[in-house]
Amino acid sequence: MARAALPGRLKWLQGSVVEVIDETQRTKSIVLELPGWPGHRAGQHVDVRLTAEDGYQAQRSYSIASAPEDGYLVLTVEELDDGEVSPYLAGELRAGDELELRGPIGGYFVWEQSLGGPLLLIAGGSGIVPLRAILRHRAATDGTVPVRLLYSSRSLDEVIYHAELTRLGTDDGVDISFTLTRDWPQDWQGHRGRIDRRLLEEIAWPPDQQPLVYVCGPSGLVEATANTLVQIGHPPGRVKTERFGPTGT
Amino acid sequence: MSPISRGFLGRRRPVADPSRIPPGQYLTKDFPVLSAGPTPHTPLDEWSFTIQGEVQEPVSWPWEEFSSLPSETITTDIHCVTKWSKLDTSWKGVSVDTLLEQVNTEAEYLTAWCDGGYTTNLALEDVTDGKAWVAYQYGGEPLEPEHGGPARLLVPHLYFWKSAKWVRGLTLTPDDEPGFWENYGYHNHGDPWLEQRYQGD
């Protein structure tokens, strides 16, 4: 593997919150003004650090939701029931607050035009966040690389960026598919049920098209999806994964 | 000095022994999975473990021989760069000291390589004198593929990306050659107690 350009030291930066956007009931987008931000590649993440008055600190990683071309850095955060940092970010933080973070981090789960395609993006839940950055980056750079997104959510009101993704799906070369796993409106036109082999064979580029695949979501979904893609015949080296959450083991 | 995060109190969970949690880490009870690609599923009859590179004679053990080597049971704390730490994890495996006894080398570094193409680099002094194992059991059971089975490196005093999953061999090298994550800006050494997460930390 060619040695990637190494970034300089990742300094902690001070962002200020410009806006907090309600995406779903449990998910918010935090729009940040971030002086000194060195820029990022679509798919990378940051470390956020919170400090209590007594000096106690907590750090977590969050994917960047904005494209490098966007004017602000945006993090989209899902509140976890037993979380420590996400309930603060999604519940307490508001415009005008300061937020300390550093990045960008990660250089493998990224996409840019030079990597080509076709692109197959598969997301579960808030795993859509880095893939949204990729879609926005593709659009911002007048991309012609064909892309298909398959996005699994429990229910329609848990779909993050629903309107934006639907709009992006009208662009040339962009095909957006939603699947709902728990409940769906009676007139739901999208897919129903978990991502499985049948759905992947219907939606994914076939292996002979040699798609570049990005799978992001809860560990179980990523494990099952990546395994199925390999069984269908996709080379493991073309399947990039990013997971979050517990495994239950 | 970090600024105070307005309204942040923290949800501090009581930790029996805070001195076991490195800076910036939090305690978890489950065992999160992180990997850059699909989980390899190498059948045991196609599996072997190899030491090669700067050695007089490379040595390779098929699964049957490898799993018959003298093994050790290790109970240790592990620390992932994504911030979670897990205490008192229990493993069984072969000490890297036992493996290196079989070769003559002047090398000071090694690259661990794996099914799926993952690599990570380590100084020899970080894997000798009882500091590293090739582990094939976790919690008394065969190591699950998602957690690196059939066998993974176990280097618990460094961040867990150094404990390469699906490890198939060690290549001994005269020079230190960055591995997969080390090439993407992660710290070359990765000591959790010094919070060496990223390059320059």
Secondary structure topology:
The complex is a heterodimer of chains A (249) and B (201).
Chain A: E1 13-22, E2 27-33, E3 45-51, E4 57-63, E5 73-78, H1 86-91, E6 98-105, E7 119-124, H2 128-140, E8 147-153, H3 162-168, E9 174-180, E10 191-192, H4 197-203, E11 212-218, H5 219-232, E12 239-244
Chain B: E1 26-27, E2 48-53, E3 59-62, H1 63-66, E4 72-79, E5 84-95, H2 96-100, E6 109-114, E7 119-123, E8 133-138, E9 141-142, E10 152-154, E11 167-173, H3 180-183
Parallel strand pairs in B: 1-5, 2-11
Antiparallel strand pairs in B: 2-3, 4-5, 5-8, 6-7, 6-11, 8-9, 8-10
Report a brief summary of the structure.
With 249 residues, chain A is of the alpha/beta class.
Summarize the structure in words.
The complex is a heterodimer of chains A (249) and B (201). The mean pLDDT of chain A is 94. Chain A has helices spanning 86-91, 128-140, 162-168, 197-203, 219-232, and strands at 13-22, 27-33, 45-51, 57-63, 73-78, 98-105, 119-124, 147-153, 174-180, 191-192, 212-218, 239-244. A six-stranded antiparallel sheet of chain A has the order 4-3-6-1-2-5. A six-stranded parallel sheet of chain A has the order 10-9-8-7-11-12, sandwiched between helices. Helices cover 19% and strands 32% of the residues of chain A. The radius of gyration of chain A is 18 Å and the shape is globular. The longest helix of chain A is centred in the C-terminal third of the chain and has 14 residues, at 219-232. Chain A is built from five helices and twelve strands. With 249 residues, chain A is α/β, with parallel strands linked by helices. Chain B is mainly beta. In chain B, 6% of the residues lie in helices and 30% in strands. Chain B has three helices and eleven strands; from the N terminus they run E-E-E-H-E-E-H-E-E-E-E-E-E-H. In chain B, strands 1, 4, 5, 8, 9 and 10 form a six-stranded mixed sheet that branches. Chain B has a five-stranded mixed sheet with strand order 3-2-11-6-7. In chain B, strand 2 and strand 3 (59-62) form a beta hairpin. Chain B is globular and about 60 Å long. Classes of the chains: A alpha/beta (249), B mainly beta (201). Chains A and B meet through strand 3, strand 4, strand 6, helix 5 and strand 12 of A and loops of B.
